[in-house]
Amino acid sequence: MTSLTSLYQFAAERKSAEVTDWSARISWVIGLIVLIAFVYWLMRQGWKWRGSLQSGLPELHATPEGFADGEPLLTLTGRYHASTTAGQWLDRIVAHGLGTRSRVELTLTPQGLDVVRPGAADFFVPANALREARLDKGIAGKVLPEGGLLIITWAHGDKLIDSGFRSDRSAEHAAWVEAINQLTNTTATEGAAR
Question: Is the pLDDT of residue 125 over 90?
């Protein structure tokens, strides 16, 4: 009898789990979704604001007629990561689509650098606007091991711009640095001779 009484007391003490309050749970989920949407809206507004601040940047050059007729010095396929103000690797330039990441096909000739970006705005950098090329480890939003990015510095209007590229075959980067620096030295020498 004592075992039956203790079993009864044990069963009486146990309580079932409380029923989930679905209205409170749904309210929290909706509140979280609204908060995430608000944060994304703020990010988009910040991107637009940055673009309006950089609206003084002139239009990008288009590829000149007959550019493809000459023999290219180098070609590269890979990724375009960003363009920033030269020397300030976190100051991303978003005007004219320069802030849009994309695939890229680069072609270097004595006329300049042709940047073809599927899904984003293509642009051309004349040879006299090229300043230097170097290997670096980071540019706005992308950090790689030392020497993982090809950074090309070029002038556009009165602004110096660093553009970051990563080849599908990173061993090509050194040849690009040498070719661009040689091309800029040649153009500077020709400009001084005039």
Answer: yes
